[in-house]
Amino acid sequence: MTQQSSLQALQQYVSQHILAQEVLVERLLIALLADGHLLVEGAPGLAKTRAIKVLSEGIEGDFHRIQFTPDLLPADLTGTDIYRPQDGSFQFQRGPLFHNLILADEINRAPAKVQSALLEAMAERQITVGSKTYPLPKLFLVMATQNPIEQEGTYPLPEAQLDRFLMHVFIDYPEASAERAILRLTREEARQGRNEPLPSPQPLSQHDLFAARTAILDLHMAEGLEDYLVELVVASRDPAPYGAELAGWIQYGASPRATAALDRCARARAWLRGRDYVDPEDIQAVAYDVMRHRIILSYEAEAEGITRDHFIGELLQRVAVP
């Protein structure tokens, strides 16, 4: 089985157990292939936790869930030095960040010091305890969740940390037909015993995953399409050439990380669809998730009810496609 077919089999496996969340499943696989982190926002009960747990069962690697709370400490993530009275020495006890797949559940409930520790892990792939720095696994993905309903007792994520997320994904409630399918699936799982491990295909090896990441970089992207990608990001900072009203909507545009993220995500999407080239649809499909958390609108735009997605949609309509 080729690496491409192995990833497609993994996608099919996850989709069988995560119903009506096709976008979330695809974005998880794109983040895995693009070596980035994912911020997922949605109401409770939309299979956010279940999605990454099912994904971890189809990958050669380990998974850990961290429930973020206001009393969480950085050491609860990174680990700490433990004193050994028998020989008077200190031994480092690793924390949950040393796993391959991390679910940071309700990430915005943790205070600034905890966010700082997670930021180092996401950005540098390492953690620092005292005077020592420890590398994290080569396969390291953080999927963080936010609940948009509750605002009491939460800490807004700083822009510097938001920029470290490859994508910011919104998910919504399923339609009635999909909800009936979810009902039947949960009923069947309850009958079989949900604590039993899900029957999964041959786990995707880390070797194959890293090889797939290299293959994605070799996908063909036309020079004109590369210019289009860059122009979208540049237009988010200076949209005046595309409309005077757009210039009044923006305070800060997307950073250069958005350019790299848009490139990697578009390539991963094309590769998952079995193509060896990137087309404009790949860029447009991931543009919202890549750019929405990297844009800060002006007060005037917010007063008019303009959303970040509306602004991105206007850019996609006005920037010429090659």
What is the CATH superfamily of the largest domain?
P-loop containing nucleotide triphosphate hydrolases
Q: Would you report the number of β strands? A: 11
Radius of gyration: 21 Å
SSE class: alpha/beta
Query: What is the typical, i.e. mean, pLDDT?
Result: 89
Which series of helices and strands comes N to C? HHEHEHEEEHEEEHEHHHHEHHEHH
Distance between the termini: 35 Å
- Main sheet: strands, sense, barrel: 5 strands, parallel
Number of domains: 2
Oligomer: single chain
Which fold name corresponds to the CATH topology of the largest domain?
Rossmann fold
**Total of DSSP H or I helical runs spanning 4+ residues:** 14
What structural keywords apply?
322 residues; alpha/beta; Rossmann fold; Helicase, Ruva Protein, domain 3; 2 domains; five-stranded parallel beta sheet; 14 helices; 11 strands
